[in-house]
Amino acid sequence: MVGMKPGPDSIGIIAVSHNCSGVAARACGLVSLEPTKVAEILKDRPSWYRDCRCVDVLQIIPTGNGGTIELIYMQTYAPTTLAAPRDFWILRYTSGLEDGSLVICERSLTQATGGPSGPNAPNFVRAEVLPSGYLIRPCEGGGSMIHIVDHVDLDAWSVPEVLRPLYESPKILAQKMTIAALRHIRQIAHESSGEMPYGGGRQPAVLRTFSQRLSRGFNDAVNGFLDDGWSLMSSDRAEDVTIAINSSPNKLAGSHVNPSQMFTAIGGGVLCAKASMLLQNVPPALLVRFLREHRSEWADPGVDAYSAAALRASPYAVPGLRASGFMGSQVILPLAHTLEHEEFLEVIRLEGHSLCHDEVVLSRDMYLLQLCSGVDENAAGACAQLVFAPIDESFADDAPLLPSGFRVIPLDAKTDAPSATRTLDLASTLEVGPGGTRAPSDASSTSNTRSVLTIAFQFSYENHLRESVAAMARQYVRTVVASVQRVAMAIAPSRPGGQLEMKNPPGSPEAHTLARWIGRSYRFHTGAELLCTESQSADASLKALWQHSDSIMCCSLKAAPVFTFANQAGLDMLETTLIALQDISLEKILDDDGRKALCSEFPKIMQQGFAYLPGGVCVSSMGRPVSYEQAVAWKVLGDDDAPHCLAFMFVNWSFV
C-alpha cells in the first residue's frame, strides 16, 4: 500500500478505504524525530489515541533478527452511551531493516489465524485489527518518514442501526487514529525543539497530561466500567438520563492524584448523569464552538457553584435548578494549543456573583479547566468535544479532576461544507428563546446531516445527600439537553423546500394561515379577542400569537392527538422545539386529573366549539411538572368552516 496515490475519498494527504471489509486509512508524513523515538511514541497508544483505555503487553518473544513479537490485549472506550466498548487481541511484530528503517506490523489473533486465545472481558465486543502497521524510514540529515496503515473491523452489526456509521466510517477512523498519531508525533517534535510558548509557566508535558486526564475522565464517565467501581442507580421510570455512582473514587482518580479534598471523611463518591441523543442537520464543530463561547445559554450557575464548593471541602446545599438567573461573565484564559490548533486547553474563570440557596450565599470567582477539540468545520469525520472540570485557585499539577462535558460525532458523510463565514454571534437567533427555529441564512449548507450528542456530568456527593444529588443531576442533564436542543435548532442551517406540515418555522405561509384561523375561531366561539393587534396584517397576527404570554398549542383531531404547533410560551412550557413537537402526544403531558377533565368536556368542545378546563398540573417533555391556573380548549376552523385542529391555552403557567 505504500506509495499509492490518495483516492477520491481522501482527507488531504490521508487516503481512506472505500467498499472494503472493515475500515482503513493510510498516511505518510515527515517528522523531525529519529525512528526509534517515533516507534516508542507510536507503541504508547494511550498517549495519542484518546479512545484507548488500556494496552497490556502480556508476552514478549525475541526474534532471531533482533526484533520482537508481542501479544497485546487492548481495550477501547465506546464513544457514546448507546453501544458497547471494543477490545482487541493483537500480535505485534517489530523489526529493524538493513537501511535503518523500523517496521511495526500488527494484526488480530483469531480462530482463523490460530495462536493463543486472548483474555475475555465482560461487556466488551471483540473487534479485529486487520493487517496494519508503521514503516519508519530514517532521513538524511535527521528525522523520519512515517508510513501509517490502520485497518480494523469494529463489528458494526452489533450496534443499533442508527449508530453504524460511527463504526463504518473510514474518515472517523482516520481522524481518531491515523491523523491523531501523526499530529501527536509532530507535537512532541515541536515541543522538543523548545520553540513552543505555553501559558501558566508549565512544562508542555504537564499540560499534555492535563488534556489526557480530562479526556480519559470524560470517557470513563461515559462508559462507566464495572471494574472502575461504577454501578447503575435505579431509574425514575423515564430512561432518558442514566445515573451511575462510583463509591471507589480513589481508584477512579488514579494513584498520582490525592482525592481527599474532593471526598470528605464522612464518606461519599462520584455520581454521573449521562445521556445520548440524535441531532439533525447541526454541524458538530459549530455547536461545540457555541457551547464553549456562550456558556450562559445552557449552564446553571448554582450547579457550577456546587461543583466548585466540593473542591473546598466546605458544605454546600444541593442546589435547586432555576428557570433563569444571573450568571457572571466567563473569561477564557488560554493555556496551550496543539500545533494545528485542533485542540486547546484553557482555564475558564466564571466571575463571581451572588447565589442564594437556602442557607448559603456564595460570591466568588470559580475556575474550570477546559479542553476543546474538533471545532474545525472542514475536518471530515472529526468528533467535536468540550470537556471541563472544576479546579481551585491553586491549580496544582496533581489536582483531582472530575470531567463533564459534551461530545458530538457526525453520523453521515458531509455533502456540503458549512460556510466559513457563518457567524457565531447568535444573540439575535436566540431571542425567540427555547425552541426557536430561526437560523442564520446560509445557502451553501443544504445538506441533511445527522450527529450523535453525548452528555455526561459528574458530581461528588456525600453519602447522606446521594439521593438529593442524583435528583439534581438528573434534572440538570434534562435541562441542559433542552438548552442544547434549542441552540441546535437555532444554528441548524435552513433547509429550503421542507414540506412537512407545521415543521416550517414561523414566517411561512402555513404559520400565517394557522395564526389567523386560531384567532378568528377563538373570537367566534368565546366572543373575546385572543390576538390584540393594531394591524390586521398576517404578520401582526402571527407575531401576536408567537409572543402571547400564555402557552398556546394546537393538536391534531385524531384518536391519539399529537401536537402540531405551539407558540414560544408553549415551546418553553413543553421544553421542546418546533421540530420535536410532533413527537409529543397530548395524553403524555396531561396528568390523570387533566385527562379526566378533558374527557368530560370533550363532547362540549365538539358541540359548542370551546370549553374552560380547571387549573392543574401537566408535565413537560423533559418530565418537569408545570402548573397552570386555567386551560381553554377550542375548535380551530379553517376557511371552509371545517374543523382543522384543537387549540389549547394554558393560562399563567409556571414550572413547579
TrEMBL record:
Record keyword Transcription regulation present: yes
UniProt entry tagged with the keyword rRNA processing: no
Annotated ranges, domain START: 24-169
Main location: nucleus
GO cellular component terms listed in the entry, alphabetical order: nucleus
GO molecular function: DNA binding; DNA-binding transcription factor activity; lipid binding
Name under which the protein is recorded: START domain-containing protein
Native source species: Aegilops tauschii subsp. strangulata (Goatgrass)
